[in-house]
Amino acid sequence: MTQAGARRERSVVIVAPHFPPSNLTAGHRSRLFAMHLEKFGWRACVLSVDPRYYEEALDPELEKLVPPRLDVVRTRALPTRPIRLVGDLGIRAFWWHYRALGRLIKRQGVDLVYIPIPPNFSAVLGPLVHRRYGVPFAVDYIDPWVHPWPGCEVPLSKAWWAFRLGRLLEPLVLRHVRLVTGVAAAYYEGALQRSPWLDPSRCVAMPYGAEESDFDFLGGHPRRPFLFDPDDGNLHIVYAGAMLPRAYSTLEAVFRAVQQLRERDAREGSRLRLHFIGTGSAPSDPSSHLVMPWAERLGVSGMVREHPARIPYLDTLNHLKHSDAVLVLGSSEPHYTASKVFQAVLARRPVVGILHAQSTAAEILRRANAGPVVTFDEIHPASSRVEEIGRALREAVRKGSYAPERVDWEAFRAYSAEAMAERLAAAFDAALEWQS
User: Fold this and answer.
1) Based on the domain organization, do 375 and 424 belong to the same domain?
2) Residue 54 belongs to what domain range?
3) Tens digits of per-residue pLDDT, 345-376?
4) Which residues, 6 or more positions from 361, have their beta carbon under 8 angstroms from its beta carbon?
5) I need a surface site. Which of 42, 49, 319, 339 has the fewest CB within 10 A?
6) What is the CATH number of the domain that holds 121?
7) pTM
8) Claim to verify: residue 316 and residue 374 sit in the same structural domain
């Protein structure tokens, strides 16, 4: 008997200010959970923002990936034009989201409010709603809230204020939280240390889930990649995603490996083309290169192409699908778990993972047998793995080195979006049994 058959269906509101047609990662995670929760006895309603208040570039095609049956409530937010008083969408939508939560609770009843962060300040809705309506809430750490991000040491800077506000507000939120989830346990470990009253048994980790139907949609709406020609005789390796502040040592090791490959076999090495998509310092700025300066400094600029601005989600998947190999870069921070690993495996191309040894992404890739994995740590940093990285790249693009039937898809299904939603539903069920 399913959970839904054993008891009445429960209701959760997922507070997701960024949601398709927004192309930001937080919206994708909320979409994947909301799509599958009903199979496990939870009816999801997504509380989001009218797209006209988004600052990021919109991707209308993304809305086709949202099931029509899914209840999505959109509110107003403080506009950023003609005067931009504040950029954070969680702050700009806060008042309207608070009122909308009240209406939903009164009109249809809500068993739980689930708040993914970032945007971090949306989490403050949890204790406010709990205090007024008695509805329990949970917080999902897509990123750590209080973290020494670059720039936070500069007095009165934006990062400085964000860090200090986080230290002030996080304990107020966690004092009454019913459940904490995260992309990986390391994402909320700092919060546990800062909140000694928080029971670790109320914290559950679940990575991003893999959603095969996104690639099925792409198969029904085929298109050519526009950033490279897959038939030009070169070997195209694609990295898609943000360039993390502490991933440059990994990037440098990759470029040194590519440099060695070219020196040892000029004919084959010169065919390599590494494409970096969406790696710029500004999501919509086509000139905000972060990767090319490193490629130029290390003498491999002729083999590297960077498209700094984000491209639409489905176009990103399409470029992965048409590549010769997919590159997954890890950070020197052990807590970082590369969410792009799922898209990489589902693209059915060989995956080269260069990851911290403690990253759950390394374990996922190894279990799936999707391609070579090179790991590093504090004792053996990425700079000491150049030879291994070169071998991994060469192996990945070697003809016949990859076949989808050799991937352990059964092991990979444990990381599907549906499996993650089942784990989340079980955590929701347990959370309602706990005393606040």
Assistant:
1) no
2) 3-209+416-433
3) 999 999 999 999 988 888 888 988 999 999 99
4) 207, 328, 330, 337, 338, 341, 353, 355
5) 339
6) 3.40.50.2000
7) 0.86
8) yes
